[in-house]
Design goal:
mainly beta, 121 residues, globular
Length: 121
């Protein structure tokens, strides 16, 4: 059974940093393109970042502008999003999501339950 479990969310002040982690189980982690997707209150889903199967290619949404770093540890089946210089607009549920292939072209097929990130003073 495929499971994606996020952790590490919380409250952070504007300009602060936070790290969220996704732990995967039930599938071969390094065979899939993994992503972070967020949803701000009252808004739709917004893709944040993704990484290929071995982690040597990373992608970010335009709004990230060098502030976030995605990494993966295939040995531990985890993927981490390190966020810095967070803005109030960064508030939302951050989801770990799997694409159905090893490339960014695959459709999303599994999602975690999300971890809440709140950026507020």
């Amino acid at each position: 059974q495929v499971q994606l479990v996020e952790s590490g969310g919380g409250l952070v002040q504007p300009g602060g940093s936070l790290r969220v982690t996704c732990e995967a189980s039930g599938f071969t982690f390094n065979n899939y393109f993994m992503n972070w997707v967020r949803q701000a209150p009252g808004k739709g889903l917004e893709w944040v970042s993704g990484t290929n199967s071995n982690g040597d290619t990373t992608y970010y949404g335009d709004f990230v502008k060098g502030r976030f770093t995605i990494s993966r540890d295939n040995a531990k089946n985890t993927r981490t999003l390190q966020m810095a210089s967070l803005k109030p607009g960064g508030t939302g549920l951050y989801y770990c999501a799997r694409r159905s292939s090893i490339t960014i072209l695959g459709k999303y097929d599994y999602w975690g339950q999300g971890t809440q990130v709140t950026v507020s003073s």
